[in-house]
Amino acid sequence: MNVVSAAAAFLSATDKVSLLQPACRLHPRFSFVLRGRMSGEGRAETDDVVERLLRTRELIAGLTQVHAAERSGMRDPLLLAVSKTKPVEYIRAAYDAGQRHFGENYAQELVEKARQLPDDIKWHMIGHVQSNKCKQLLEVPNLHLIETVDSIKLATKLDDVCSQLNRTVDVFVEVKTSAEETKSGVEPEALIPLVDHINACPNVKLRGLMTIGHPDPNEVVSCFTKLRDLKNLCMARPDVNKEDGLSLSMGMSGDLEVAIQLGSDEVRIGSAIFGERVRKGPPSG
User: Fold this and answer.
1) Which of 35, 231, 260, 266 is most enclosed, with most CB atoms within 10 A?
2) Contact 58, 2 (CB under 8 A)
3) Distance between terminal CA atoms of the chain?
4) pLDDT string in tens for the chain (285-residue length)
5) Is residue 55 within 8 Å of residue 49, measured between CB atoms?
6) Closest CA to 201 of 153, 156, 244
7) Given phi > 0 = left and psi -120 to 50 = alpha, else beta, which region is 73?
8) Among 48, 142, 156, CA closest to 104
9) What is the pTM of this model?
10) 3-state DSSP of the chain
């Protein structure tokens, strides 16, 4: 049974569940898609990377079809392959299988990988951006998107550096939709002033909002619904591009399905494609 068929079976009359109920993580019937052969201390070989990538694409297509009614009028979600800490050969394998959008958490790592890989890759910065890293990041010609703008200070710095480099940059605003102390992002009440400021920056183009869901699956729906509602508020601002609209980046391996159901335009998948991060030294604890 292919993934689309499995997805349809999942919502069959004998086994229909509401994903807007607590415990909204991916249903076990789909979990096989996010598993793959592993070898060598948890590192996926390049063949496994390709297999996992293809399975993940099928999964996203199946879930998008299952939730077609909720997603009416929306484009299919983009798969962002999160390649942080992964070797270049893994990214090359995914590239050769047709993947073009890759996400990195660290500016220096993105810069180094961009130098070694094809220039039609679309790099997304999905980690916190320090002001002193803006220039080297913006010097990457195929930097596609910075997804973690969370302050007027950072937006201003990006605008200034873009002006020096004679370029523009597309950005998402990262929004803190739950209260964990370790989570980054602008607080919801400060979002509109930040959006207005970005729209006044000639070299910084607002393209959407991003959030990381709560680790408790009972709270994920609230996070994603909040981001969707905040998008509607942003769309009402006078300088937001109404024709192109704003995208929503929400959903990772653990909360992929509910993100797709609630209208995500981009899902960020890492270990399900590239394998778990290799631990250096003995595990702690």
Assistant:
1) 260
2) yes
3) 41
4) 444 444 444 333 323 333 333 334 454 445 444 444 334 434 458 999 999 999 999 999 999 999 999 999 999 999 999 999 999 999 999 999 999 999 999 999 999 999 999 999 999 999 999 999 999 999 999 999 999 999 999 999 999 999 999 999 999 999 999 988 888 999 999 999 999 999 999 999 999 999 999 999 999 999 999 999 999 999 999 999 888 899 999 999 999 999 999 999 999 999 999 988 654 443 333
5) no
6) 156
7) left
8) 142
9) 0.85
10) CCHHHHHHHHCCCCCCCCCCCCCCCCCHHHHHHHCCCCECCCECCHHHHHHHHHHHHHHHHHHHHHCCCCCCCCCCCEEEEECCCCCHHHHHHHHHCCCCEEEECCHHHHHHHHHHCCCCCEEEECCCCCHHHHHHHHCCCCEEEEEEECCHHHHHHHHHHHHHHCCCEEEEEEECCCCCCCCCCECHHHHHHHHHHHHCCCCEEEEEEECCCCCCHHHHHHHHHHHHHHHHHHHCCCCCCCCCCCEEECCCHHHHHHHHHCCCCEEEECHHHHECCCCCCCCCC
At 106, list the tokens. 């660290």
Structure tokens at 62: 């199946």
| Lookup: tokens for 150 | 């969370």
